[in-house]
Amino acid sequence: MQKTSLLLGLFALSSPSLAQFADDFESYAVNSAIEGQGSWSNWDGGVYPYNTVNGVLSSNGTQSLRIAGSADPNCAFCSDTVSDLGGPYTSGQWTFSCKQYIPNEFGGTTYWIMLNQYAPAGPWSWSVQVPFNASTAMVSPDTNAAAIMQGPNSVPIVFDQWVELKAEIDLDNDVASIYYDGQLLAEYVWSIGVSTTGTATLQALDLFPADQNVSEVFYDDFKIEPGLGSNMDLYCDPANPNSTGNAVTLANSSMSGPGVVHLEAAGGPLDQFGMFVVSASSVDPGIPVSQGRLCVGAPIGRYNSTAGPGLNSIGRFDASGVLVNLFGSSSVGTGFDVPAVLPNPPGGIINPGQTWHFQLWYRDGSASNFSDGLSVTF
Fold it and tell me: How many of the other CB atoms lie within 10 Å of CB of 190?
């Protein structure tokens, strides 16, 4: 192996560590009311003890959030529960995700809602409104027809199983894609996704049982993570941990800057070197190499000192675990601005409509490791 090949680096901070917001409900007392704890309150800013921390079901750990109708005809909407998700978010690319469990005996309609404007007394503007309807057993998003770019699509509810709800939100370009169990529900203009007016911001999450008789649904593992728009997806995630205990991720990368994409890496071992690699094919869960998993297929391009002008991505992790660029190929000093020109192999240029896959390969003492993978459709 050439000496430069040893100067390798993965973006070594795990997804949970990079999360702007995360809640897995493990820190709350079982059976306690969630409203008034953490970021959670009721729609009107009140604190009503109808939604609780469940100690029986969990997608990860031992606890989850139970959402159900209030069973109180005098307070039909008192179990309408809101979180600000650690925001507001006013720019950049963000991925919201959580896990949902709907029991087979579920009755009524419950909603996953996200708002671009929210305050207890208003104004309100809706960007996501997805009803889960027991009578139809379907997930059919409510959307503003004027905003739609793809979809809307209806898919069956998955009962008695944890499934992922995900929204990939690009506030800079005012575009979002929402998914249920990996299936695209819709892609649309975020600010007017449901309401006819709004702003390119993310203000709140709302979990809304449609009336007091809606039966229980469970949620877990809420996260807001930076960097991924609708055309960027992590895979091989999480990567293997390194000597710091972190697992490398490319979650803070973005479609911004002077290149076709900007790659960011963080959480790596202090003073260790790394470089980015690229391929037209992906391998998931990856091939074991040294202490990590190689998640790109042959031929693999290396952004190193022999790749050509502007193609050297080699950097070194600083004390905070961020990969600092050493060769002036990043406009912000960290990570790497990927140009349209590809190293050889594979050679050529990145064209619109193509998907390319990136990883960071890095030194960790006498061993090497890899980040998770990042697939980007241009």
Answer: 26
Give me the pLDDT at residue 320, please.
87
Report residue 328 as tokens. Answer: 């002036």
Write down the pLDDT at residue 256. Answer: 63
> 249, 239 in Cβ contact below 8 A?
yes
pTM of structure? 0.62
Residue type, 297: G
For the stretch 209-232, pLDDT in tens is 999 999 999 999 999 887 654 478
Q: CB neighbours of 309 closer than 8 A, spacing ≥ 6?
A: none
Question: In the CATH hierarchy, which fold is given to the domain comprising 31-226?
Answer: Jelly Rolls (2.60.120)
Task: Quote the pLDDT of residue 112.
Answer: 98
CB-based contact 314:330 (threshold 8 Å): no
Cis bond leading into 285, ω under 30°?
yes
Q: How confident is the model over 315-331, as pLDDT tens digits?
A: 999 998 999 999 999 98
Residue 234, SS3? strand
Domain segments of the chain as ranges: 3-15+231-377, 31-226
d(CA 155, CA 189): 21
The amino acid occupying position 46 is G
pLDDT for 20 equals 78
Q: Considering only CA atoms, which of 101, 69, 92, 75 is closest in space to residue 20?
A: 92
